[in-house]
Amino acid sequence: MENLEDIYMNNELTKDELSQLRQLINDTTDEVLSADMESRWENYQQTKSLNEKEQKAIWNRIERRLHHSHRSVWTIIWHLAKMAAVILLPIFILTSLWLYRKVPTYYPHNIVLNTGQGERVNVSLPDGSQVYMNVKSQLSYDVSLFGRHKREVSFVGEGFFEITKDIERPFNILVNQLNVKVLGTKFNLKTRSENRTVELALVEGKVELSSKKNDHQVALCPGQKAIFHLSDGHIIIHDATTTIQDETAWRRNEFVFRDKSLDEVVQMLEDYYGVTLLLSSHIDSNHLFTGTLTAENLAEDIAILEKLYHLRIQIKK
Predict the structure, then answer these.
(1) Are 304 and 292 in contact (CB under 8 A)?
(2) In terms of pTM, does the model score above 0.85?
(3) Does residue 12 or residue 297 have the better pLDDT?
(4) d(CA 168, CA 239)
(5) Most confident range, picked from 27-31, 43-47, 93-97, 287-291
(6) Would you say 15 and 101 are in contact if contact means Cβ atoms under 8 Å apart?
(7) For residue 170, what is the DSSP state?
(8) How far apart are CA 116 and CA 292, in angstroms?
(9) Domain finish residue from 103, 127, 150
(10) Are strands 178-182 and 186-192 parallel, antiparallel or unpaired?
């Protein structure tokens, strides 16, 4: 490598030799490179030092030019600057090649995870947090930024979050016009565009919700559920320990309904299984359903509803 460096310092390096020099620098340890640069700097100072007679002659010429004109001063400075550039530039470039190897390059890279009909997945984030995604949901984050100074993700759909505690880097979830800030906690988050609401049921820990529409902020405690209305930006809190068990029933592969019309029950099954259900007769919407259905067997769910409502239900795929 020394021979190539010498040729480079004399400005005689070819394109192929420059590529070879770069490769050698990449393959050399930091300690060897540091010692090599220090040695070259000291040698350059020694070889370029002037004796006392030469220094005095140069200074006399500078003094004569100083008395000639003001413009000559800048001419001298310019020549000295060019001389310094000639001496320092090769060393600067060699140092830059070394630094280029040491400084990491970050490229923006957005991770997007989606679930389809009847599909559920468990996602592990870089900080150790877990997100259990329900059907037809989307989670996204910038992998080059996540965890460096902040932890931030965007989410649409339904998911159960188990967030790793990190006081210095709170976890933020961006969902529609709502920001969810958490430290270390577990909660169920649900947002569907057709409902125009965002629902968060807190199992443990603490979360803060901030509306981007009207700066409305609330803090939730375990056992509470918040409903954010996209229309006006208001957040309503309910004490609902029992409801939270219902909210997370999907993780147990169950659908829990409380005072829901048959239309709502059928709509839930259609969305989950990705089918269309045809009913043989119309059912009064005031006839409400309370009960639990499985999220693993559509035929079993249909049999329960047919027996309960005395009708026939056909599947149109």
Answers:
(1) no
(2) no
(3) 297
(4) 30
(5) 287-291
(6) no
(7) -
(8) 23
(9) 103
(10) unpaired
Taking the C-alpha atoms of residue 163 and residue 288, their distance in angstroms, rounded to an integer, is 37
Q: What is the chain's alpha carbon radius of gyration, rounded to the nearest angstrom?
A: 35
If phi over 0 gives left and psi between -120 and 50 gives alpha, with beta otherwise, what is residue 122?
beta
On the question of pLDDT at 317 being above 90, the answer is no
More confident residue, 310 or 69: 310
> Quick one: how many helices (H) and strands (E) in the chain?
8, 17
Range of the domain at 79: 70-103
Judge if 98 and 128 occupy the same domain: no
Q: pLDDT value at position 8?
A: 55
pLDDT of residue 32: 67
User: Which of residues 85, 103, 121 is at a domain's end?
Assistant: 103
Give the three-state DSSP class for 299: helix
Both 117 and 229 in a single domain?
yes
Element (H, E) at 176: none
Q: What is the band of 119 on the pLDDT scale with cuts at 50, 70, 90?
A: confident
> Burial, 53: exposed, middle or buried (Cβ in 10 Å; 0-12, 13-18, 19+)?
exposed
